[in-house]
Amino acid sequence: MFITAPLPFYNKIVRKHEPLVRQFQYILRISLFILLLFPGVIIHAQDAALSGGRTGSMADGELVLRAYKKCFPDKIGEISYIENDWTVIAGSEIFFWAGGRLLPKAEKDEFDSWSPHIFYGIPAKPASPDTYPPQFIETLRSRGSSEARMEQPDSHRSFHGIIYGGLERKDIEANLERIDFLGAKVNIHRNIAAALRRIDAEIRKNHGGENFIGSIASIEGYSWRPIAGTQRMSYHSWGLAIDIQPKRLGGKAIYWMWERGRNKDWMLVPLENRWNPPDMVINAFEKEGFVWGGKWPFYDNMHFEYRPELHEFSRLMTAKTTVQPAGSGAELHHIYPDNIRNKK
What we know:
The chain contains 14 helices and ten strands. The protein is an alpha+beta fold. It folds into two domains: 73 residues, no CATH class; 207 residues, no CATH class. The chain has a four-stranded antiparallel beta sheet. It has a four-stranded antiparallel beta sheet with strand order 7-8-10-9. Strands 5-6 form a two-stranded antiparallel ribbon. A hairpin with a 2-residue loop joins β5 and β6. The longest helix is centred in the N-terminal third of the chain and has 20 residues.
């Protein structure tokens, strides 16, 4: 049974507090937009809201850890709820969710020292910039500044060091394999070599595949370095990212930072004015567990990185909510993107 107030009484309250009601309605609309367009941002927000910003107590933390376990079963062990937080065994070490930071036990309370890792629902298509609310546009503008990007600390790398086989350059380079990929010689992490060979074969057998390969100017894989203008390491440093640059852009934007240098409204460049690889190329990469940077508000349309856990997380979120993840997939990762290569 619902308890309802008499309509005249309700109308009197609404009229009396109309400014507050309108403000609440506006905030609600913006919140719903962010929820629908950028579902991944809810993960860290919920954790902070329910735990005072100190621990990641929401079920989404569990879903992320289960996604990792599904994708890296030989590296990830038991998932538990300990000391009011989700934990996971990686190698022989316990890691705390810690609001998405994945911190070792000895560092689990050092929230301010580390940025959260990146977890979001993968959208079917990029979000159109003409759907961005004004506040979100200004957030992109300010967070894309050189000062804001330098202020953002790195994410703790120990968890991924276990998954990918090392933290130091010499350890990572010991895991590299040089392969032929779309007509180029590329150094990549050996764990994704088979996937890239399947992507190569898939593209070649598709109509237009050879034409696409002929249009490529260069392909970059492994590159040990911090992200340009930041304190954070790129997925290229793991050998887990691929950049495909075309011979000709035809006047189109391809990378938000390049566009920012000539256009203060770089985030509003229409999708049709951005260079995109063919859909069959994007689909071939996503089928093998990669994500495409063209779906981010901080767009990097030449960039693919290996994130199978995000595909599994999207599947788990879909099963949990019965709603397909929608929108651009943007989240704090792409407000402070950690996938940006040192582009000139």
